[in-house]
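Budget justification note: compute hours in this period were largely spent on complex prediction jobs such as the one shown. Inputs:
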Amino acid sequence: QSVVTQPPSASGTPGQRVTISCSGSTSNIGSNTVNWYQQLPGTAPTLLIYSNNQRPSGVPDRFSGSKSGTSASLAISGLQSEDEADYYCAAWDDSLNGRVFGGGTKLTVL
Amino acid sequence: QVQLVESGGGVVQPGRSLRLSCAASGFTFSNYAMHWVRQAPGKGLEWVAAISYDGSDKYYADSVKDRFTISRDNSKNTLYLQMNSLRADDTAVYYCVRDQRLDYWGQGTLVTVSS
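Corresponding output:
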């Protein structure tokens, strides 16, 4: 049972906008920045969003992140078939003195 | 370009030990904190351990504390994970990951703990 909670699944049709939520507590999301990772089937994860809302070079601006209090969200606009993947949020947890991941959200493009 | 190549995985019996290595290239290894993250078959990501850029600070998940040891050799650009008293629930792909942002990941090495 992860201390950071994500919905197990999400879906959308091509061109749609979808959001994935990430809920934590004051010891993790509430006091530290959130990163998001994308894991395409059969591959290693890649960094998608860091410091709540920053995109690494090469990440399309269709992907955006936000944080408010103890929750964060990843938004994907103009959904494409290649966005079908697992998405994970993560933050440092001051109580555990370690990094925590959300359980992951499997995004299906219908 | 940044490359992280893990090695040392394999099949090991419960209670035995294994040491993973991660060879880093394409960046100044000694400037970055490093992490190990694992993923059990069909499951999500689990952070395992982290080490500061100079090796002076180390952090562990409760699930591996007192059994696993993270270390690094900056002269060899290599990260290590010594895993002792292995259990079946340690079975996973182990990833070597750079920086506090976890910005670059290796391809992973599979550790299977089974009798």
